[in-house]
## 1
Amino acid sequence: MMSFNRRRLKNSLILIFVSLALNTFAMYFGTPLYRIQIWSGWILLTLILLLFLYSVRKKINLLPIGKASSWLQFHAYAGLLSSLVFLKHTSFQLPTGTFETLLAILFASTALSGIIGMIFSRIIPLHLTRRGEEVIYERIPAFSYKLKVQAQDLVLECTLQTNSTALADYYQNHLSGFFQKPYMPLFHLYGSMGYLHTLEIKHNTFCRYLNEQENQYAKQLFELIRKKYDLDFHYTLQSLLKTWLFIHVPLTYALLLAMTVHLMLIYAFLGHLQ
Amino acid sequence: MKIQLQKFIHKYSSYSRPNQSWSCGKQAQGYQCDAGPDAQGQCRTQYECTPYKKDARWICTRNNSQGGRCTEGPLANGDCCKQVVSCQPIRSIRGKRKLLVKWTVFTTFAVLIFFLSSHLRAEFFSPGDLSFKHAKIQECSTCHAVFDTSSFEWIKQALSGNFLIHNSNKCLDCHQFGEHAHDAHGLKADELKQLTPNKVKPEKSDKKQLACLNCHLEHHGENTDLTNVAKQNCAYCHDIEKSMTQNKHPEFTQYPFKQNTKIIFDHFTHSKKYYYNRAGDQLLETAPESCLSCHKSDDSGINMGQQSYDNDCKACHNEIFEESESFIVFDIPELAFEASELNAQWPEDARGTLTHFMILLLASDPLFTEAVTDLEDYFDLSELNKTNTLKLIKSIKNLYFEIDNKGPIALKQRLIKAFNCQFNDQGQSSCSINETELDQLVSLMPIQLLCEAKTRWFPKLDEEYKAESSHYCANNNHNSESDTGEWILEELSIEYRPTKHNNPLIKTLLNLSSRELSSALTEKTRLELFNELISEDASVQCSKCHSVESVDAKNFKVNWPASDKSSTQKEFIKFRHDAHIKYQDESICNDCHQENSKDGYLDSYEDHDPLTFESNFITDNKACLSCHQNSMTETQCQTCHNYHISPPLL
Amino acid sequence: MITKDEYWDPQMSSELIRHILMFQLFDSMIKDELPDYSSSADIFKINTEDLENTLDFDLSDRLEDPKLPDNNPLIEIICKHTRIVKFKKGDIIIREGYYGNSAFFIASGKVAAILPPGLINQQPEQLPVKKMSLFESLKKLWNPPLYPEQRNIIEKNQALVSFNAQRVHLDNHASVLKKNEYNELSSGEIFGVIAALGRTPRTSTVIAKTYCELLEIRWQGLRDLRQLNEAFRKSIDSLYKKNSLLAHLYTLPLFSSLSRSAIQLIAEDTSFKRYGSFEWQADYKENLENNTLSLQKSETLIIAEGDKLQSLYLVRSGFARVSYNYNNGYQVIKYLGRGDCFGLETIAYNWKNNSNLHLQTSLHALGYADILQVPSYIVERMVLPGMKEAEINKHLNSDLLQQFAKQAKDSPVKELSLNDAVLDFMSDYHFINGSSTMLIDTDRCTRCDDCVTACASGHNNNPRFNRHGYRYDHFMVANACMHCSDPVCMIDCPTGAIQRNPLEGQIIISDSMCIGCSSCANACPYENIRMVQARDSKGLPIHDNETRQAVLKATKCNLCIDQLGGPACERACPHDALKRVDIQDLPQMINWMNR
């Protein structure tokens, strides 16, 4: 089985070759009489439709039409190729006119969101593996609730056992917000442990006022804090992995619609080459 | 202490269903609902169980996983005793995304439909501003015929398979490029051929028509120069690959010369020999100092034409005219018989011959044509018999009588008949001169001298004719005062001597005689006249400087002006002399126009074919390349080449 | 009280039951006497008169009386787990190498059990499992059910493995029987026990020699009969041991050059021992909770490092772990499954070099292991001399010995490699059982759930696995059915809804046959079977008419056996993060892990 590096190299070489071939074709046969725009436009349209086919393929996974990973490889490299063709189609210039600007923005944002999403897909899983327990995204609120209940039970038990409300008060004042629900603060995006450190310092500072029995509970409580922190980490990064598609997919449909109108306008007001 | 949040045990972890759109809202609290939300996202659980009736008793059916049968049991009316607070179902991630996609599609669709059907569509869909030259156009339908119709029409138009050319037609509403606007260079095929003699038709040009939109693309912003056309467009017909790929502009072959110059002027014999004295060491005073002494740019700055004969040539060449010889125009021919034998009055000692001009004047008289029918050589009348001689005499006398009777008109009429001239109201003529020129020729005729000659040579003419003459001669004092030539009445002939350049008589005669005539007599005569006039023996050989072209085997054309280009006719190559040579030293002309070492300039005129020529000068494209390297290879062809030749009129 | 619905064969009538009861098979149950089981043919002879005693009713009376007593365990077993099957002359009854869940008692007729080497390459193609057509797939995609676990309660029997439908006839059976040696079994004898009880493939092909009437007893029946009757259990167990030993020896490539008589000689001296517990899953769960899964804490030692090797150890079924001692722990070198042998290198080395090398590694049973011990002197005398030089050298240069040599020279600090560590992990958790374990590389997985969605699309919008499970470094073993080589989930199924596909060994649950007892779900040590509530078209749970309890069904991954493309999860992962791995095929797994 081909290693990832080899596959990447192979596909990149294919991409370079194809783009050079297209460029040569354009140089020699393209420009006379406006042909280059028409040709590059049709190639772009075909590429976009092929790219769109990937989302269709995901829905008909039952049929033996090739592995999704092969399709994704094609999708990614075809996406890069389509960006190059797009630049050629617009002659490397900014668009003029409201509708064409809109169309260009749609394409550019779709392509950029795709590239960024690809980068996310390769970087984020590594971080997710290396920290925290593996959790299913939809269950994170339930787990968070569970941790909250556990923390509350813990401090209540502590109160009952030690006849002191210190830990419970500390929880109420400083930690109840933290345990309330899953959060996705920005600092989790770069794996910062800063806030945990802050909590730890606070915690340690407070622990000086607890006796040994209470400290046992406090230790357990801190384990829960650590767990919640990691859970939030997973929540943030998994949310990112899920939400970039919220940009990429709807934009695709908008792009397809706008592209159809663009095609209609071209042929209504410019006409076919003879 | 290791906290494991996710238990793998099947009792505690049922399937997670990301494919469902809705999930129970209480999942976050760990509650597992039996029924789950319905497809519309509504919670349907109200009770913990659905009691069933068995033997008049209601039995609780709560699941074992939820705790089994409850101790209280259902209520008497069959409702479950434990109500459940409905949840607010939450959409799954996929459900949210599906919703977002639906909304995006809807919004995009709505926006597009809105703009397609509103009055804002022109602004919205315009692909860019018009170039500032079209800024006056406010209505889209000025150029896009289909614009003012509904969007459905647009769709229909898009599907109709119309071509660029249909959409280009509106351009021609304002920009008139004539009937052949969509043909190559906007010219009819044979016109194009005519303007580009010696050029091979590009192989690829056997194509269909070219629309304006093929090269000129609007809507690219205010500052677009619509005339800035990509050079690759020229490659559609012309083979410019080398210039595109190897940065090489094709070599100039005979540029800028397409054919022989109209005025024969060998620059180098002049500049090396004739401008110098006999010894060859001193420049004559009359010689020009530099190219610019004769060549000055015209108003457009494009052409460096000659100025005029007076300016450029007269200083040296005037003696041709000053020392020209006269030639006989009217003569009394020698007859084979004596006047007494003929019993007709004829001047004595007539030793002349019929001149060409006379023959042409006489040709309209049937008497003359009858008389000379069988004659081979019209100048040797010795073979004429008596009858014919008499006829001849009569016809000549007719001429003189008519002159006396009608005046110059007689000559005009005769000439018209001889040269088969027909003039219409639009100024078109069927012979090679127009009516004005004919009138001018006639006005130059020496009527007064002819009248005198008549009196002298045919004193009894009036009696012989007995017809009433209107006595033009007696009543008019026709003085043909011309400063370009003089008529001389000799004893038995009238001669003419051109004295100045641009002599209208010789010119008109040459023009008249350059065209083929229908009758054998006149055709032979006019050809001889023409050849005589262009020969070296002519009194003044116009054709020494004015080249003669053969249009076909029988027809000729004398090139009078140095150039017959109309100033409004565009050239295929645009080159402005004045822009290039202003403030430059006079020697700059040689930088581009170098001497052609092949010495075939004069010889090339002998075949009367202007297309076979050897120019005095050759132009190497190196001269251009030294400054225009970029333009000639990388940038537009249009820097120097024109596409539109036919003049556009707004 | 057992209802007709629970009969294995719905056509079974009380007359037929009585007919079956007459079989010699049940003699021991009725007479309750220890039979002489030296020859299998005598075991099951029946005496009609004594039938009544055990049955507790007057058989002669009941022979006319159509009604049979309720609540008789024997009759229950007969109804639920036996049926009569008939074969024409030349039909193939069972096929070597295929999986089967039942034993056959010959009521009448003769069968031929082909002796090794068997017909493995000569058999006609078995009809594969019927897959959905393209049209059906598209239809399924077009209109997925709105709600999870929708069932149309009146459903046709979806048994994927329909024995009666797929009768395979051997046209040239006469010539086959002429060319191959076979054991003829006649009425009163029983065959097919090994596969049924051992959860292993069939050991030989059995062809009907004449028209025969067989009583097919599925393994639940065998299990229940064994529990019901001590004598029966002993006789079945001894038959199992004897036959499986011989059959296994025949299949070994090591003994392929030996004659049948030689093998029989070897068999006489070979002992069969079972290490560990056949029902190991119970211990497994306990160990999991107490975190005592690792070798030193839980597994049964077969032979230790440093011991003198007396015999060649052959793994008949189950799994064994080969490891060596490092400091206070054990480093797994490899694990052995059915057909593997242990100790050959050491024996060969000693024989060739006339040395006395002791064992360099130890052997532990993983879960359970049926070990056949062939004395080393037999190996030295009968096997090694017959082997080619090159082959012996191959064994001598095998990985194990190389590693010993290497370790002797290396520094004490052992280099830990991921592969070794993963092997340890797999062995500890007994994942080596899996023939298509779902491995997810969490360094590549973007948690997009495309695999789950794809799985769902193939099962009426219901996913059949959960994307969680034990993880080692970045490899997670997801909770998806691994289609174990040793499927313990099948042990307790009362109806036989959970079956093994005879062709490739996938474990499939037949939804219509499942009664939702949760035995399989509780039995599966890896928690890969999940119980779901059946729902109607509105998505509301279906309740049983009588008990009013929700109808439960056991569900699990079926490797998309009825679909065109094969396992949907693998194909759907966009990032090459998911793979169904056969843990027995180590090189492929390591390759994938290191890609």
Note: Chain A touches chain B through 54 residues (CB under 8 Å).
## 2
Amino acid sequence: MFYREAGEFKTSYQADQAIFPHALDRGFVIAMVVFAVVVVPLIATDYWLGSILVPVLTLAIAAIGLNILTGYAGQLSLGTGGFMACGAYLAYKIATSFPELNLIIVFALAGLCAAAVGLVFGVPSLRIKGFYLAVTTLAAQFFLLWLFTRVPWFVNYSISGVPTAPPREVFGFLVTGAESAASTRYVFVVLVTIALALLAKNLVRSNTGRCWMAIRDMDIAAEIIGIRPLWSKLTAFAISSFYCGIAGALWAFCYINTVEPTAFDINRSFSVLFMIIIGGLGSVLGSFLGAAFIFLLPIFLNSLPGWFGVAISTELVSHIEFMVFGALIVFFLIVEPHGLARLWQIAKEKLRLWPFPY
Amino acid sequence: MVGMDATGDGILLESDGVSLSFGGVIALENVGFDVRRGEIRAIIGPNGAGKSSMLNVINGFYHPQSGTITYKGAARTQMRPHEAAVQGIARTFQNIALFRGMSTLDNIMTGRVHKIRSNFLLDALYLGRSRSEEMRNREFVEHVIDFLEIQSIRKVAVGRLPYGLQKRVELGRALAAEPDLLLLDEPMAGMNVEEKEDMCRFILDVNEEFGTTIALIEHDMGVVMDISDRVVVLDYGRKIADGTPDEVRRDQRVIDAYLGVVHG
Amino acid sequence: METLHSVFVQPFIEIWQAPAFFVEVLIGGLMSGVMYSLVALGFVLIFKASGVFNFAQGIMVLFAALNFVGLLDLGVSIWLALPLTVLIMVALSFAVERLVLRPLVNQPHIILFMATIGIAFFLEGFGELLWGGDVRKLDVGIPQDVWFVGEVMIQQSDVVATAIAVVLVLVLALFFQVTRVGRALRAVADDHQAALTVGIPLQHIWIIVWSVAGFVALVAGIMWGARLGVQFSLSIVALKALPVLILGGFTSVPGAIVGGLIVGAGEKIAEIYWGPIVGGAIEEWFAYVLALVFLFFRPQGLFGERIIERV
């Protein structure tokens, strides 16, 4: 009743190619964007803005990055944390070395450096696949983290080793540092997220994206019909690392306000992998859903006992968290390998027909 | 749609003394034949005769240990598959090699990949060349879709399609590349009578309307006799006959190795 | 200039000047390597038999050790605790087969791999739920003294571990080569569908193999636990078995041994002699980078099989 396609005929391929070909979808998304950018900062609490939305959006960017590499291009990576660390540490280095530089440029440069590093660690993918590649991405993860922890140059020889992120303004608004308001930080992050999501959506629907998916599905056939695996895989690594780098920089500058290695360790890599598995491999929407799910679940589990008036130690909750995560991964892989995004799609398809059964 | 080649005698592809082996296993031994422009050339023979290997050599996936492949007048024995695609060779596979995670439309669009000049930056911004090429290619692919009568399954993920339709989509992907030489590896395998008739019709149409030269591997003798202009017979990696379908059918060596005697 | 000297010259001078110490480091590393090999063995078993890359092998080591130590701490005698733990690992393999492997039977290997990551996380939480997250000391009566060969100091516990590992490997190698079950396992690794077609009972095979891997994990867990105490970091250490597999080849039992030795010795030597130059803790990444470099020259590992892809 509410979700109709009948009567919508596309008169040009241009219209059919649009990201949201259905007028209803378009309207919905535009409304969501306006809501997110304009309304939310006005009505949400600082806690929600600064401690929930900012990290979820940042992680969504990382999830999009990993989805590009693993979900679309089929190259399994366990090095996400390492590439995020690249972005964070290099952003710090660049921001402190060139204090006058616009923060957006700083982040962009940090992202490019992360992309270059990703390119280097992507070279093995030309000869190796699957689990072997996963192990080499582990090399990236452990080596990069070691590098940033042990080489004090990156943190400007700070005594503690974990410096605070420098306060910086964008167009007159303070978006990093302890003085900045949660709402300004949020608006900055949400705008960056929307921009990057749009670029990603364009990419995966284009020739580049098709080549990635071809390599993922059947790389030998892809090469035979003329796709160049070298170029395709390397661009996947580079672009993915770019996204992860930006996410890392945002995490350090706009969320935890410090540049520390533990935020980007092997657990982060697994966490982001879980996000794209549960959210949906090969789906930009799935990256958002997965990020929200994985980030909010522990918070939910932590609060749950309180709602029932039962007191459970945090240690116990963390053990249950692990069990729930593990079980959910297996559950999603069995029941719906395309994750929450596919469930959303199915729901929409049901809505198209409602109230008719078929 | 057909480009011009360098030779004037109408030979598009020539294999000369091609030998191919894997470790100790000989796949092809001194195989030589030619394919003329605009013809439909069948490659037949018992299982394991080296037919698929021959196709793989032609499109550069395997490199023969000896012998030459001359395509469009130039020797191209060490060609890589990517180059083969750019040079106008497209193919289908015995065990369908479609990209299961993508829709029919996207799969066929991948056939256009070597015609695309855009890069990932333009793709991300969906500007300029990325947009215009996408539209142009989409238009061409829609022609292919119309030609193969698969409009209704355009947006369906190919993994969900029945076998016969998947074969058709794979043909579509090859056609989208606007090939000069189309290699078909058992295009009718596993099909029922109606599907075979449809596929025959498409192959003949492609050959007649677009002038595409076709080399196909096929086991169904009826099909081979009906649609091919000339036939090459392989057995244990060697060529044992080469000629028109009638000539080959009466060749004693072919009968012994493969055809058997026609009864009744 | 000085850096070049310290990297390419100095360490070798140090080795030359104190050979006994070098041998000690080498042996210590090799012994470490034996531990890695034990963990890698479990991987190889499961991969050989089912084509599944069991990411949870490391956690299984921890899980087995936790159960064992937990039972011991509860006062159960070691002769009862051992078979009980084995039983627990067998029960685990039943559960894994029923709940994870069977529903995913024809999925691509990458999906199964990710499922084992899920199993790993589940087991980690479950194990700590049952027994708590504290470090536990494990004492199974392994002699803790040292022997001296000339000037070189050797840990007795390391020798015992090596002996046990050797025995285990021989038994396993025999099992695969000689017994009917072993041959069936190899068939299954090649092709699930084909194995089903010829009547090999897939479910039984998987349960057997995961149980054996569970037993190997228990042995590894006891050996490691006696050395380091039973704690979570055991599973991080076990992650290092992955580079071992790359060096040795994923399908090779001798490869797991040799790979483990190379990794163990390599990382110790690198840490002691080259570590100080760059600030230490090279062990965090050395094994992985070694594997990475190795992949360029010999992707299938020292003993692995070359896979030829056909279209």
Note: The interface with chain C takes residues 22, 52, 56, 61, 93, 97 of chain B (CB under 8 Å).
## 3
Amino acid sequence: MAESPSFAALPLEALCDAALGRARELGANDAEVRVERIRSQLVALRDAMVETTVDDTELAVGLRVLRRGSQGFAATVELTEEAAARLADEACAIAEATSSALAVPVVLAEEPVHGPDVWSSMYEVDPVEVPLADKVALLEDWSRRLLAAPGVDHAEAAVLAVTEDKHFSSLAGTVITQRRVRLRPVFEAFAVDSETGSFESMRSLAPPAGRGWEYATGDGWAWDDELARVPELLAEKVRSPSAEAGTYDLVIDPSNLWLTIHESVGHATELDRALGYEAAYAGTSFATFDKLGSLRYGSPVMHVTGDRTVPHGLATVGYDDEGVEAQSFDIVRDGVLVGYQLDRRMAAENGLGRSNGCAFADSPMHVPIQRMANVSLEPAAGEGPRTEELVSGVERGIYVVGDKSWSIDMQRYNFQFTGQRFYLIDRGRLAGQLRDVAYQARTTDFWGSMEAVGGSSTFVLGGAFNCGKGQPGQVAPVSHGCPSALFRAVRVLNTRAEAGL
Amino acid sequence: MRQDGRLPPPQEVVERALAVSRATQGCVVIVSDTSEADVRFARNTTTTNGTRRERHVSVASFVGSGDGVGVGVASRSGVGDASEIDKLVSASEADAKRARAAEDEAPLVVPSEVDPSFTEPTVETGAPVLAEVVGGLAGAFERARAAGRVLAGFATHQVSTVYLGSSTGLRRRHVQPGGTLELVARSDDGTRSAWTGAGSAWFDDVDLLALEERLVRRLSWAQRRIELPAGRYETILPPDAAADLVVTLSEAMSGRDAEDARSVFSAPAGATKVGETLSSLPFELRGDPHEPGLQCAPFVIAPASSADVSVFDNGAEIGRTIWIEAGRLARLQYHRSAAQRSGVAPAFAVDNLTLELPGASGGLDDLVARTDRALLLTCLWYIREVDPHTLLLTGLTRDGVYLVEHGEVTGAVNNFRFNESPVEVLARTVEAGGSERALSREWGEWMARTAMPALRVEGFNMSSVSPAI
């Protein structure tokens, strides 16, 4: 956990000074420059044979300026002072060129000057420094274990490792160097019925995490246990009956619920969306600004926070990409909408004071936009119920485990999710797996039907590397923690029936 | 080309990397220089705007091992001097030496002829390409404010110049321009919304006013609101919405997945459905690097291998590739090595997609005029695979669903969540118009070059109502 010597050896200050100095000369009111190196490695095996390897380094400098109320951004891979200074000319030029169509001058919320400061996420072994051959060897071992199990016909295993070094400097005087590390190991087993050509699959439940290579070798996830269990679980799934469509009580495991939170709460409570700034692409939100403080989002046991400080969170930072210090804040309290995720523009435009630090750019080539914090559902206070206790309170229902397919509308009302495993709940007990299940609901109906949340022992930090938003498209990593939770009377579909079979 | 005395010419990068390569079985170098400009707007004002210039260099080294060829690929942005090139080559060779024998091994491609354009410079774009659109935005915003509309959208233009060289003597260059303009207009009370978009190579054929007029027309259709329940409806997909589904269909054409019994195109006992009829209409689905208006790379550019793409195939010629012919599945995607194993011809991914019904003509309005009662969509959104076995997809209708009655649009309908398979959609298509340039709202960022007909489909499964607008 230290600043990267090779990154620190780059002419960071000289590049930033050149860009900011020229921006000042050109009359920029505000300017922020990021020199950023993103190393990413992907190794993917199919049936224990290497299918894909990627070993990539992105190194570039990007500058955002605010001049006469108009924003401009420019970026280049050329790391010279001349090129950095030229970015200011280009960013100011496009800010000027588009100012004729600017109706609302951009204002950024005040933020104290920070630094110079150095911050790093929590990890032990930088995963991109682990040789690809070692990664291949680990994934071969996983694949062979799966393929050796009865009933497994094919196996996939992959790991995606990212190490992000970022140097931020602003005209206001903030100077920050940050390092973030993240890892996504995954495996999936497939069972094929060669007579019919049909198949089933089951994927590991391990979430991606803000951890180093140690995560793939057992620190934070019991890989050996899951590798041993998945073939049996897959065999059970192959034998299981197709679900009957209808209305069921659902107990949803954190391995599935994190994604429902992401889509129906995380995105819906981004203020730029709620105000219409994403109307052309990601969409808007039913949780409009006039409903702040009054919208009944869910049941009284629903408490949701935005947090950019949680250890191992994929959206955890020391400072965001506008130089705002990381924070934790309420979004839903006692089932009522009480807060939004903000960047500096959203905070200033709506009189909300300081930004809560949700600006992010996925690349030095992209401008920071408002992105998601680690948005998490709090567990029950005290010890709280275990998952088994939630199940015991269900007469006829389904226990949903693992995420798979997901989709939600552009105002975050109507969603549909599937999963890795579905268990029938019969009179308070699990009664075997079901196939072909999807659950579908409207956001506030669904969260309003949440009768109980599990205790902290059920809490898991899930998440994804690939949350998309913005134009040009940007991809952000984000975590979502949650306990198991019990929902009453949710619509369940049979996916084969939906396909007309 | 923009050199500024800092980044060496891309050809020099290619030649330097090949000169220092010590890989026993060869080396492939890909240099991609990309420039881009974009303007984003919402709430009748510009928001974020930017320009960027990028170079990305990939080096693939091939090294003999005991039982085959090991591959190492290293890539990075920038690459400013010889030492950085040398480091990249060394990194790829180190990985190749430690790699197991590659499953996709094939002889590196040997040039059949010299590409004279290889010596030509990078082609660039910048903010001036968007000047006419940007110049028109202020007026569009004024008109929108006066009429109680709120405009949002995005204009972007990008040019990539790719240089590909190999130790076998390949020297190829491809210039890929491309851009899109998307517009959304919402009534200021939030009760009506409409979308339109256009893809273009150089933005010289993008007509902001015409697109604005299309939005105004669609918002006017929505003056009458009709609530309809979930169910199966005869549905008209305009070319853009057809592209939303057909792009997903094309993504499912993996030969390996089909043979492994993991795709909608799998048949029992490791066979595939090639040769089976998908539609009673004689549709042709093709990719063609030389398709007029949709030109794309005529050779393989593969910085990494995957199920149906191989770094060994870099530089291989891509020709007109017919995926569906006369309504039958004609072929699936294979790289050369997999094709040899399976006893079929290689079929490479093509960066454009055309669906055509031979003999069909007329546009969306003609199809509407011939329709007694159907839903008319605008575009589809948040499309995700639910079941790969049937290619069942879920997603939403967005920014305009209309009811057609007796050949005319009679009002706007609520949005729906659909659960449908594009394979079934083709099978249940009863009529199609002539093919025209289309922009997939969902996939246009990755597949902007499409031509599609409007489709009239029976029994489109609208699974539930979405109150979103």
Note: The CA atoms of residues 287 and 321 of chain B lie 5 Å apart.
